[in-house]
Amino acid sequence: MEPTNLNSPLPDDERLAAWYRANVSDAALPDEGFTHSVLVALPPARPSIAARRRLFVLVGALIGTAVAFVKDFASGRTLPDFPEFASNVSGALALPASAVLLLALGISALSLWYVIRPKLNFLPRF
Amino acid sequence: MTDPELIARVLVSDEHAAFGELVRRHQSAVRRFLRHLAGGDHALADDLAQETFVQAYRGLAQYMGSSGFQTWLLGIAHNHWRNARRRQRTVPMEQAHLDALEPEAAAANLCDLKHDLALALRDLGPEERTALHLCYQQGLSHGEIADVLHWPLGTVKTHLARSKEKLRPLLAAWNPQT
Fold first, then answer.
1. Given A6, A17, A50, which is nearest B136 (Cβ)?
2. B46-50, B65-69, B93-97, B145-149 — which is least confidently predicted?
3. Contact: A38, B12; criterion CB under 8 Å
4. Between A13 and B34, whose confidence is greater?
5. Which of A98, A123, A118 is nearest to A57 (CA)?
6. CA B116, B120, B122, B126: dihedral to nearest 10 degrees?
7. In this complex, which of A1, A15, A28 lies closest to B109 when CB atoms are compared?
8. What's the confidence (pLDDT) of residue B24?
9. Threshold 0.90, pTM exceeds
10. What is the full DSSP assignment across B60-102?
11. How far from the centroid of its chain's Cα atoms is residue A59's Cα?
């Protein structure tokens, strides 16, 4: 290809840009594993706020339970063995007066479901 | 999903997958810019590009959103390249890009526009070539170029105007008569 005319006017900005893009610029580069290499080089993900909140709730519940047990021991009361405990619970559940207990259990179950729901993909989300 | 939405996901949930999408979107622009700066050394350019994205990940909370995300990335890339050049203390790396361009053009056709353009670009200073690349190749505005290179806006305009003034007479023969 030859220059068109040696006495041509000077090219304007648009023409310079078009020449540059056509002759100097590189085409868009394909990824070719570059993104993967970057992701491998990233520092490990820190626990998210949600994960930290879940951990906080879990640890809180465990500490609360432990404190309740310790308080029971300190007051000299002995823990019921499991059959006695189970019969007490089933008895309480059968009584209409235990509505408050049912409500408490329901709230606990809902709270636990909320906390662990992201990990349980088979459960419905709403 | 837009860039700001992906950035928010990375900041809130530290999602590597969201950051991966940002890398996929902007890797080409960052790598092309670094290849331009590093000349024919594509391996060095890709290493610097990787460092750029890792640093961007670490410092994402500092991204204020006042400029485009890509402009911010190109600014980090330019800093990395400057540091690498300072460490290596070799010949100006960008010169190699022009050296690499020339034999290919010469082999094709000595009167080719590509060849003339490569020769004309040799007459520009490195700053002028970089400003021209960001303007023509990356399509950045003058203000964005100033952000990337940390130059005053007036300096960007001066370099661009000078580079165009140098190129015009050298390429005038290719301009069709009106």
1. A17
2. B93-97
3. no
4. B34
5. A118
6. -140
7. A1
8. 94
9. no
10. GGG--SSS-HHHHHHHHHHHHHHHHHHHH--S-HHHHHHHHHH
11. 17
